[in-house]
Amino acid sequence: MACARRCVGDVALVVCGCAALLNAVPAGAEGWHPVTPEERSLQASKVEPNADAEALFYEIEVDDGMWQQSSGVALGSSGRGNAQTIAVVGPGPGSPRSFRREYLRIKIFTEAGKQSQGRVELRYSSGSGISDIAGRTIKPDGTIIELAKEDVHDRVIAKDKDGMTRAKAFALPGVEPGAIIEYRWQRSFTNARAQHAVIPLQRNVPIQRVRLAVRPRPATWGHIRIQSFGVALSPLVQEAHGGGNFNVTTATNLPAIHREPDMPPERDAHAWVHLFYTIEDKPRVEDYWLGYARFLADRYEPQLKPAGELNAALPNVVRGAASPLEKLTRICEFCRTQIKHVPDDADGLSLDPLFYAKQNKSASDTLKRGSGTNRDIDELFGALVATAGLEPHVAMVADREHASFKPQFLNYNFLRSPAVAVPVEGRWLLYSPSARNVPCGHLRWQNEGSGALIADGKDGAFLDTPLTPADESQVIRTGTLRLASDGTLEGDATLTFTGHAGAEHTEDYDGETAQLREALLQGEVREHLTSAELSNIELQNVTDTAAPLTIRYHVRVPGYAQRTGKRLLVQPSFFKYGQLPRFTASERRHDIHFKYPWSEIDRFDIELPEGFELERAEGPGPVKAGDVLDCDLTLAIKAGPPQVLHVERHLQFRGLRFARSQYPTLKQVFEAVNALDRHVLALKQTTAAP
After folding, report:
1. Distances in Å between the alpha carbon of 342 and those of 346, 350, 443?
2. What CA–CA distance (Å, rounded) separates 52 from 106?
3. What is the share, in percent, of the chain residues with pLDDT greater than 90?
4. Which of 315, 435, 455, 490 has the most CB atoms around its CB within 10 Å?
């Protein structure tokens, strides 16, 4: 019990800091570092051959607060994985602010390097700010051109329901091949500390040397852990400067970030550091997660209890449901469809401060008001489940869009997504009613194929979250089309999306105006059918989570079939026309991670032009890759007149993660699918066109 209490205390410390945020950083030496003769004479990258530019160094200093006195600091290694620990042994007064100062020096080798590195955009979001920007260019002849303050501009990058993203943007002056550019800036966070700060170490250029310096928050008793991923850091050393003691580590020869299709999560593919405070220096894996599970149970499970106010509503919610599974589905659908999400653009609810002034205090409040945050909706679901006589428990689920999870990481921040776990017939079922775009009983794709911690108030349990089968995430495309003798294809198409495919597309469209939805759809179609003309566009069930997203439109594509003498060459796979293979690069740097298994069904008719007939109505052979992929194209002729080509295409992909070594085989498989999709039929003219 004593160990468990220490673990819970550790978690409580972590959770308190979570409300603030993240990164913090100041510091660096005053002025610029001297430019060395070796830097001036460098002609090519030392890290990546043929790179257009290279960072000579990248310095990051994290100062977790402005304090009147510094604390004593003890250095050491945790001995577990890539984590190093700094023990903060004394508190100190001061205001709670965190800073991060960054300093980057880059050598430009080519004109492409000038174009990619000469313009800089430093992004920041609500609750943070960027200041103290300075920059300069050292030309090959030694001339120095300073960045003028008036050439630094602030602009809005994006604004959505989650807040606003802004950027400080500037172009460094006089950049040319052979020049050195450098700039520094400070990022600040008010009322925050470096609890769960994520520090990326890689950039879009290779880096010779990265230096990370951390000054822990003196007012916090405990240990700040420096946990590295994808990079080997040097042992910590202590340096005193700027009125404080900084703990410094370095890394060398970091490659540039190279983006590829179907990459692993950013934090699996790239080098980064995670900063967080703990009370215990070396907690055992079992004790840490037991403590966190008990903390979750103590904190949240009182909200998942039967409530008298819910008894009156429950009969209508579960009407007609007999089994526990049916009751869970009815309760989930009720929470999803009858309770508005706040804030959520699809519900048309704004970020109204009055809502937060009257926050829901219980599941009964959420039910009465008919609206709530994601947490409110999940708690209402749990309370209704308990009122129905079932046993809900809080769960936290890893998000593999951000990072893969292993319990050995000893950090609860890798479990990002809340859920409600219910034992039914000897197995755990996970529900996330606040994830409005996925079917009840399923999690978001980001949470499937990952790990979850269930807090039952006693022991806690890890489980692997199951994947939704491929046939439950479908893209179904149907249509009736007519081909003219001049090669124009015209007709009506219907697209239906289910499961995760539906959730992804719904997220793109909900909250947007009808005009913008139509523009988004036209953009998607014209990516591969550049001459397509769409009209009579209709999107159904964009906000109805209980029904599949359905899109209908009329399409006209001039020049779809190619006229060669007395023949028309036509690609029967209309919905795949013009698409490239999924993978085109000859080499691969990263493993391959797909979002989820999926299936595609195309079923449509093409009426052939009068006076033409098919020379051969044969489809290519099927593509099969073990238990991972099946794809087949079936063609059939319906006797006329008019003659009609019936097309059916079926694809099912059941994979998720593949090692980099499997890339050649995977690439070959998708090239075979693309060849099937590009199969061409020849129509021979038999009589003169009318």
Report:
1. 10, 8, 20
2. 11
3. 64
4. 455
CATH of 288-466, one of 3.10.620.30, 3.50.30.10, 3.40.50.300, 3.90.1640.10: 3.10.620.30
Residue spans in the chain of domains classed CATH 3.10.620.30: 288-466
Residues 364-403: pLDDT tens digits? 999 999 999 999 999 999 999 999 999 999 999 999 998 9
- What's the mean pLDDT in 635-660? 93
Q: At what angle do helices 2-18 and 285-300 cross, to 10 degrees?
A: 60
The CA–CA distances, whole Å, from 115 to 112, 149, 172, 570, 583 equal: 5, 21, 11, 42, 27
For CATH 2.60.40.3140, the residue range(s) in the chain are 2-278
Instruction: Name the architecture of domain 471-685.
Output: Sandwich (2.60)
Helix and strand counts by DSSP (H, E) for the chain: 14, 39
Pairwise CA distance, residues 152 & 167, whole Å? 10
Distance, in Å, from the CA atom of 258 to the CA atom of 272, rounded to the nearest integer, reads 15
Provide the H-helix boundaries in 513-617.
514-526
Contact 669, 582 (CB under 8 A): no
> Burial code of 543-560, b = ≥16 C-beta within 10 A, e = fewer?
bebeebbbbbbebebeeb
Report d(CA 555, CA 537) in Å as an integer: 9
The residues, any chain, with a CB within 8 Å of residue 610's CB and separated by 6 or more, are 485, 641, 642, 687, 689, 690
Angle at CA of residue 623, ends 617 and 625, nearest 5°: 170
pTM: 0.84
At 411, list the tokens. Answer: 């950090």
Q: How many residues does the chain have?
A: 690
How far apart are the C-alpha atoms of 424 and 327, rounded to whole Å? Answer: 11
Q: According to the CATH classification, is domain 2-278 in 2.60.40.3140? A: yes
* Residue ranges, CATH 2.60.120.1130, the chain: 471-685
Q: Roughly how many angstroms between the first and final C-alpha of the chain, as a whole number? A: 90
pLDDT in tens, 463-475: 999 999 999 999 9
